[in-house]
User: Which sequence fits this backbone?
């Protein structure tokens, strides 16, 4: 058998298992993600990434999701992609701005509507993608100007620690860091979408595990409720949704190997992960019964986090509409996957 | 070729372009050469956008397409030389289906059952494969699959069609039902009971029966769309040589499980390729209607986007399963995920077509004068109506949606077993 179109991943099963174990323990002990940077350094993460970026990123974000962690490691993923077209940071750390909706760059004179993954204390600049005559400009807006338009995101997922940016920030274009950021921004969004897709898959896998455990233990009519076909089939459908998201995610990482491609595949990976969380949470909530709706039961935290992550870098409904509109106006039906 | 029968390595043929061996080894070279052929070969043109009045007409014309693909060599890749192939593995076959669809051509209908019946026969009955598969690949014959019976649908292991051994022959008596292509197939690969009536899956054998044998009666069954996609078959003391066994007597269930891997992987991939072609056609039909002043309905974008996303998810999953088969992995109960995704994608696509075509789907304007707003799309809409009914079988044939979910619950999620009544 010749290798032909098969690709090998650098991360072997044993290494992946070791990394997973270390990250799972660390995140379970520190769900706010504090110390994640140190742990990654100890694990030699830069080398792991160099060896197998898709495998390592997926593994890290799946665990991040499983633990419902709230670190800003996603910021690092985006900033690493944006860095080459931005001046070296001078005054301090940066934080990317995540537009809501389909994550389209913001109009220069429109109020900002988006998210930050955490507070602006210690952050010097917010990187804002700005739509400029068909190009994307990357503005480095002083954090204190953005701070005035922020408030805790709270809402459906009070544990997220995210900030909602909702209001005007004057003269976005004055702080141009790059006027030709289209390519890096597209790429940053694509890689970010794959990371978030993995995180959603992690949250979903954890929620399904909770539902399997609950239904296997809970007895009604003298038998475990997981012996009822209606319950079993819901759990199977949740499993299918997760596995299909995993498959598209893997295919999208492969598509990203092409220097100019992969953004369509990454959008689909994010879309399918978002779709999966809607499926999984609907089924998990049903089979966990009233317990799953209670504050003391862990399920609600997964439901809320998955929904918030779905909104990050484009929710599945918004992306489905965007994709379909493109198809209607003649966009090629990219098969995304080849044998 | 991954068939564990020790199929010989493909032999470079002296005649022809002399590239068979390299295309068998180099999948990308095969893909590109095939793509070029499909886009430029004039003889293929008549198969594009072709509609047929009946299943019989479609199968007959598709046999012609099979012959063209065979004679040009393309459909022989992925099969061992012992059955008339040119070497390579499952991925060659998958690429053939994908490239046909991408070039706007149909996958010959015969390949649905070639993909499910071919591999087990190569694996478990190499002599039968050598004798009969070459003619299948040439489009000269095709086979049906006789599994289901009136009393044995989802509960396949309860089947009763009986094969009684008498020396070197069996006498087969019983009935098969829902046999795909049963109306036109000339041989049937049947799962029959050779053990005691109570033996369940342990007493089954797989055997090939010629439809023209005395005692075989085929009654076509029209689907709701009017097409004879299916048939019921009656066997009345049909004499079948034991040399027609596929696998040993009593090994039928194992052969069926082996077969199912290909049904889950290859048939799903083939169907996904065809579905992507159909979605592309639907998009074109909607665009043509819009250009003619009939805008697409509200919500059309999201519906199309959803259908496309389901298809890509199916392709992503199925490609992985095809690659696993190609390296000789055994595909187990996890392949039910593929099957569920296939059904979801097919049902979604055809519901979207039905909903977005709307009145045109529902009402035939046959005989309407030119210029009538409905008349232009009638031929396309008729095809969607036919296909819509067939798409409903996606959650029924080859293991129902319920069976797939139960397999996943039992063997993948490891849930406690369903209570027995």
Assistant:
């Amino acid at each position: 058998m010749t290798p032909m179109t098969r690709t090998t991943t650098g991360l072997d099963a044993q290494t992946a298992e070791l990394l997973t174990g270390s990250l799972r323990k660390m995140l379970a002990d520190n769900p706010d993600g504090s110390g994640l940077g140190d742990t990654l350094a100890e694990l030699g993460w830069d080398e792991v990434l160099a060896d197998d970026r898709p495998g390592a990123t997926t593994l890290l974000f799946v665990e991040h999701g499983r633990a419902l962690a709230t670190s800003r490691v996603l910021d690092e993923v985006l900033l690493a992609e944006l860095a080459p077209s931005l001046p070296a940071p001078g005054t301090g750390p940066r934080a990317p701005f995540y537009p809501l909706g389909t994550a389209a760059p913001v109009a220069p004179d429109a109020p900002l509507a988006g998210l930050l993954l955490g507070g602006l204390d210690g952050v010097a600049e917010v990187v804002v993608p700005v739509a400029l005559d068909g190009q994307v400009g990357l503005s480095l807006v002083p954090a204190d100007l953005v701070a005035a338009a922020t408030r805790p995101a709270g809402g459906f997922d009070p544990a997220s620690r995210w900030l909602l940016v909702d209001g005007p920030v004057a003269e976005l274009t004055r702080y141009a860091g790059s006027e030709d950021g289209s390519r890096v921004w597209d790429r940053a969004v694509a890689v970010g979408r794959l990371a978030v897709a993995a995180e959603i898959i992690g949250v979903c896998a954890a929620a399904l595990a909770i539902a399997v455990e609950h239904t296997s233990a809970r007895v009604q009519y003298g038998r475990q409720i997981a012996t009822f076909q209606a319950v079993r089939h819901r759990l199977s459908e949740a499993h299918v949704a997760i596995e299909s998201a995993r498959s598209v995610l893997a295919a999208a990482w492969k598509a990203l190997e092409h220097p100019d491609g992969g953004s369509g595949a990454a959008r689909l990976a994010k879309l399918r992960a978002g779709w999966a969380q809607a499926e999984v949470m609907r089924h998990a909530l049903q089979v966990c019964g009233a317990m799953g709706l209670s504050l003391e039961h862990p399920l609600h935290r997964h439901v809320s986090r998955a929904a918030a992550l779905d909104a990050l870098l484009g929710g599945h409904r918004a992306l489905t509409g965007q994709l379909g509109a493109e198809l209607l106006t003649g966009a090629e039906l990219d098969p995304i996957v080849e044998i | 070729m991954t068939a564990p029968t020790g199929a010989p390595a493909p032999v470079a043929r002296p005649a022809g372009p002399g590239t068979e061996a390299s295309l068998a080894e180099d999948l990308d070279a095969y893909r590109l050469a095939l793509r070029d052929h499909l886009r430029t070969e004039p003889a293929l043109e008549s198969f594009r956008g072709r509609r047929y009045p009946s299943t019989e007409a479609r199968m007959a014309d598709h046999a012609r397409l099979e012959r063209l693909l065979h004679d040009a060599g393309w459909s022989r890749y992925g099969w061992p030389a012992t059955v008339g192939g040119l070497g390579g593995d499952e991925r060659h076959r998958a690429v053939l289906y994908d490239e046909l669809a991408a070039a706007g051509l149909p996958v010959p209908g015969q390949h649905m059952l070639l993909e499910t019946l071919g591999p087990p026969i190569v694996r478990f009955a190499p002599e039968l494969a050598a004798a009969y598969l070459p003619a299948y690949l040439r489009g000269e014959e095709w086979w049906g699959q006789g599994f289901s019976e009136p009393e044995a649908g989802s509960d396949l292991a309860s089947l009763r069609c009986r094969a009684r051994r008498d020396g070197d022959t069996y006498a087969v008596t019983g009935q098969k039902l829902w046999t795909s292509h049963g109306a036109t197939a000339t041989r049937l690969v049947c799962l029959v009971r050779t053990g005691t009536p109570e033996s369940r899956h342990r007493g089954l054998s797989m055997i090939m029966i010629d439809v023209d044998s005395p005692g075989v009666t085929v009654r076509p069954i029209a689907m709701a769309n009017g097409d004879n996609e299916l048939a019921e078959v009656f066997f009345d003391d049909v004499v079948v040589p034991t040399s027609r066994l596929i696998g040993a007597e009593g090994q039928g269930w194992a052969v069926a499980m082996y077969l199912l891997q290909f049904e889950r992987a290859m048939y799903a991939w083939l169907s996904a390729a065809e579905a992507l072609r159909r979605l592309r056609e639907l998009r074109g039909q909607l665009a043509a209607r819009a250009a003619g002043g009939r805008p697409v309905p509200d919500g059309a974008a999201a519906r199309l986007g959803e259908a496309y996303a389901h298809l890509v998810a199916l392709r992503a999953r199925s490609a992985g399963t095809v690659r696993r088969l190609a390296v000789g992995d055994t595909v187990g109960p996890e392949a039910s995920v593929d099957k569920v995704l296939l059904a979801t994608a097919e049902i979604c696509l055809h519901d979207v077509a039905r909903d977005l075509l709307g009145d045109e789907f529902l009402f035939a304007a046959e005989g309407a004068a030119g210029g009538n707003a409905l008349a232009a799309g009638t031929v396309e809409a008729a095809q969607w109506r036919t296909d819509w009914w067939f798409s409903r079988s996606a959650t029924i044939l080859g293991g129902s949606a319920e069976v797939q979910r139960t397999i996943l619950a039992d063997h993948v999620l490891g849930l406690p077993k369903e209570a027995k009544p």
In short: Residues 313 and 333 of chain A are 22 Å apart (CA to CA). The first helix of chain A runs from residue 13 to 29. Chain A touches chain B through 49 residues (CB under 8 Å). Residues 1-8 of chain A have pLDDT under 50 and may be disordered.
